[in-house]
Structure formats: C-alpha cells, structure tokens
C-alpha cells in the first residue's frame, strides 16, 4: 500500500510524506525540496546537515534544492544566490499511484516580488517519480512570445561516509571551470577529494557515479549540458550557513545543471525538461 500524506515539521514547514513498498520520501512545499529519499532495504540517497533547523525562508541545507531561474550569483549582487525558487512555497498539484511507485507534481506561482526578479511569462513545474530510483524533472515552459533565457540546477546533496574515500567517476574528456579559471580539460575519468572543489563541468557524458567502499550512487542527467561538482572542504565549511564545520567530510554535491554557456534558451511556447535520476547501483 502506498500512502502520500501532508505533514508539518516541528518548525512549521509543511512536507509531503511518501511511504510506498519501494521507498520512503519527504518533500517540503518550501522549494519543492526533496529532503529524504530511501529505497526499500537500501541506505538513504540524500544528505541533509544536522545543523539545519528548517526555518521558513531558507533553503534546507541538503536534499535537492532547486536553483532557478539563475544558478550561482546574479549579476546584481543583492539578488539571492541560486535564484528564489528554493525558498518559495510551491503547490502540490497532483499525485498518482503508479504500477511501480508514485508520481508527484508541483508548480510555483510567482508572487509580486518574484516578478521583479523574473518578469517573464513562464510556467515552472517539478515532477518526482519515486520507486527504487529517484527521478526529478524540472519543467520550464515559455508562455510568452519572446525568447527567454535561464540557468538552473538540481543541487543534489549525497551522503558519503568519508569524503577522502570518494571517487567521482564519469568525467573523462569533459571540460571544467573552477574558481573563475579555466576551462580545463579533464584527462582522467575520476575525481578524488583533498581540497575545496567547486567545478562547473561541460561537455560530459550523461552518467556519473559516486563510488565509495560503502556503495555506488549512480546519477544520470537528461537535457542537462552541465554538471556541478562541489565539496566546500575545511575552511569554507566554517562560513556556510546551516552547515557544521565537519559536514564537508560526509557529503558531496553533484548537480544536474544548465549553466554558463549552457543556459537554456526557450523560444516562444517552447518547453524544456531537465531531469536527474539517482539510484544505488549495487
Ligand atoms: C554550489 C556552488 O552549487 O552551491 C558553490 O558551486 C556554493 O559555489 C554552493 O557555495 C552552496 O550555495 P548556497 O547558496 O546553498 O550556500
């Protein structure tokens, strides 16, 4: 039996609780942010900082925050980093019990403040398909008669028992920018972690893996021409909000994205769907 129920966190934020024979999940209406996903008989696939206190108005530090309609800093430094979608309350518009798993759809109605940031007539929706795999799609439709340009990321946080044992694979031949420098060409297939890492990859394949002695997480992307690989390491961890100083050792972000020169350009009435699919491979 599958159950989809709406609940309230102790700090007041509402979330959708999903309990099915194949998985358990929690999706907060704020940011349509999935904060927990665990396939049956397997370990959780998403990481959340124990320092987060689930306050209204702040994206949760973990799970999958949605970066939209821009990724990173805006050219106007007063505007929020990674856009505003991750802190807004989304509407749960439909749910469906599928033969295998469940489907949940959310949309975001822009308020007056949002339209200052984003004066375009567009529709943004997010779809979750949950079974023993987590599939998340961010769907943008241009409802206007002008071309619209946006950047975006599904900013997934993954649990890693010990970052020094992680091998992130699937990067051979890709290009990346890091700390404002590059593009560099990645010659080997894997990335290991021993310092702050904050790379925007382009020209990479559609499947990457996060491999540790505890297991292999497979992350695949569709309609995503970029991917971001991030670990703040020791110094930056001390500056991050809702993050413990030692958290860098137990997480990594690998984000399905369209950023920089891979920005999405939507012709009038065009729809674009960015998808990431996440599962334990073993
Ligand atoms: C990553 C960026 O995607 O997000 C990093 O590449 C940034 O530079 C990180 O620090 C976290 O951003 P925020 O706004 O959630 O603290």
Written overview of the protein:
With 282 residues, this protein is mainly beta. The chain has a single domain (3-280), classed as Beta-galactosidase, Chain A, domain 5. The chain has helices spanning 112-117, 233-237, and strands at residues 3-8, 14-19, 23-28, 33-39, 66-67, 91-97, 102-107, 122-130, 134-142, 148-150, 152-154, 157-159, 167-169, 175-178, 181-185, 190-191, 197-202, 207-212, 215-222, 226-231, 251-258, 264-266, 271-280. Strands 6-7-8-9-23-19-18-13-16 form a nine-stranded antiparallel sheet, with no helix packed on it. Strands 5, 11, 12, 14, 15, 17, 20 and 21 form an eight-stranded antiparallel sheet that branches. A hairpin with a 4-residue loop joins strand 3 and strand 4. The chain is globular, with a radius of gyration of 18 Å. The mean pLDDT is 97. The protein binds 6-O-phosphono-beta-D-glucopyranose. Residues 81-82, 155, 198, 228, 230, 240, 253, 255 line the site of 6-O-phosphono-beta-D-glucopyranose.
Question: Outline of this structure?
Answer:
The chain is built from two helices and 23 strands. By secondary structure, the protein is mainly β. Residues 81-82, 155, 198, 228, 230, 240, 253, 255 line the site of 6-O-phosphono-beta-D-glucopyranose (BG6).
Keywords for this structure?
282 residues; 8-stranded antiparallel β-sheet; single chain; mainly beta; Beta-galactosidase, Chain A, domain 5; binds 6-O-phosphono-beta-D-glucopyranose; globular
Strand content: over 45%
Tell how many strands the DSSP assignment holds.
23
The CATH architecture name reads: Distorted Sandwich
> What is CATH's topology name?
Beta-galactosidase, Chain A, domain 5
Task: Please provide the ordered H/E string of secondary-structure elements.
Answer: EEEEEEEHEEEEEEEEEEEEEHEEE
On the 0 to 100 scale, the average pLDDT is: 97
Question: Which structural class should the secondary elements be placed in?
Answer: mainly beta
User: CATH first level: which class?
Assistant: Mainly Beta
Indicate the low-confidence ranges by residue numbers: none
Shape: globular
> With helices defined by DSSP (H or I, 4 residues minimum), what is the helix count?
2
